[in-house]
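Exercise 3.2. Students should predict the tertiary structure of the chain below and write it as structure tokens, then compare their answer with the key that follows.

Predict this chain's 3D structure.
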Amino acid sequence: MMKPIRATFAVLALTITSIVVAQPQQAPAASPGGVPAPSSARRQGAPQPPAGPAPVNAAGRVILGGGAAGDKDIWTPVFGITEPITPYAQIPFQPWSKALFDYRQKKELEPHTRCKASGAARQFLTPYGVEFMEMTELQRMYIFDIGGPHTFRTIYMDGRAHPTDWQPTNYGHSVGHWEGNTLVVDTVGYNEEFWMDRRGMPHTSQLHTIERFTRKDENTVDYRVTIDDPGAYTKTFDGGFSLRWDKGQELFEYVCQQANLAAELMVGDGGKKVDRTSAISP
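Answer key:
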């Protein structure tokens, strides 16, 4: 007599699960320009105990990695990662860059969804996180990405200047130095093959960024970026967010296969219409 009862409960559970999964998700409310309105609560995760002080090295300077040798940790954004890094109304767009930004809210043909490396603030706006590694003997800082392609960014800490004959790349050419507990990174030499943030802020090859990474305590890095691009904006402006230390997490192999996921983001319009007149993502 027990088997039919079990079978009935199994069918009932499967039916309920199917109904829940089938419910359509509502799109977030949009602000002017089609940008989702900021969420009332940032990504907080599980409740955390009070943060301890930022770890320091033997010289007394704060470090961006773990607090001790062998620590496993990554930094993830405490931010609505699909929000613009600067409020929409405060972005000093030129007419063409505003039009392109608004277009990207409807057709999210982002290169990152096709396994391309993403420079500037976009590098940090994934749920998978990044890892900082300072090689003092080489006078370099490396930022390793988890999500996306198998890429890393090099920051030269030896006082060198930017070259005058650089080859534009997705990460550009970065030089850095410490100002107290803040790592300051100056970058030029960007190409135009990525989005500056996850919402699709445009830029040109004239882009020049100054990034500041300040470790406030054991669990928090304050990330600020100054954007100077006279090709796309009418003046210099700032943006930023915070990064959270995920203790115990470590880098893992992220396999990025082109066209296997995020089809709707890649083609837009729910996959109903695809404009194939250009092979280049706007």
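Discussion points: The helical segments are 2-22, 95-104, 263-267. Residues 2-22 form the longest helix (21 residues).
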